[in-house]
Amino acid sequence: MHTPLRTCIGCRATAAQSDLIRIAKVDGEPPRLTFDPAKNHPGRGAWLHHTQECLALAIKKNAFSRAFRTRVQPNELVITA
């Protein structure tokens, strides 16, 4: 059976989709990012290890802007569950 692989936007390591969390962009001002535990939210998504280190790296590298192909400033991020 094939296991889907995804790349963490923080550490850039490839891992099984089941080992990463998906973050989806919700339209609005400011951009709102939401955790997508069911992995079925419409639109673009970014994959991230569930660690503080990977989140910090993603913010430092401006990875959210690249992943969502739009400008996302760290001070504008509102991550909801």
From TrEMBL:
Residues 6-75 form the YlxR domain. Coiled coil: none annotated. This is YlxR family protein. It comes from Rothia endophytica. The lineage of its organism: Bacteria, Bacillati, Actinomycetota, Actinomycetes, Micrococcales.
